[in-house]
Design brief:
Elements: H1 4-9, E1 20-25, H2 30-46, E2 49-54, H3 59-65, E3 71-74, E4 77-81, H4 86-99
Parallel strand pairs: 1-2
Antiparallel strand pairs: 1-3, 3-4
Helix pairs in contact: 2-4
Length: 100
């Protein structure tokens, strides 16, 4: 486990630059805003991309996700639904970095 000082002075920004998280959201969804805040915080640390998709713009996505947003996928695989757990997100990112 790395110390706080190590993380502050040796950011791992570029290590996850190959990752793109897709977040399916709705405009007036407070859970979506919280999920995006968590992802953006980790984005600043790890350097991955975030692709935000508003489901209200596509009837198929509304039918698929409805009120289950936010939905977060990575590489087309569902990773989070309804809420993003920061600890699980950190573990997921670490695992993806190790696999790269």
């Amino acid at each position: 486990m790395t110390s706080l000082l190590t993380r502050l002075f040796h950011p791992r920004r570029a290590q996850a630059a190959h990752l793109t998280f897709t977040v399916y959201t709705r405009e007036q969804c407070c859970c979506c805003h919280k999920a995006l805040d968590i992802l953006r915080d980790r984005q600043a640390r790890y350097g991955f991309a975030i692709d935000e998709v508003d489901v209200d713009g596509d009837p198929e996505l509304v039918a698929k996700y409805g009120t289950e947003v936010p939905v977060v996928t990575l590489g087309g695989k569902l990773r989070f639904r309804g809420v993003v757990n920061p600890m699980l997100l950190d573990r997921l990112i670490a695992a993806e970095i190790r696999q790269a």
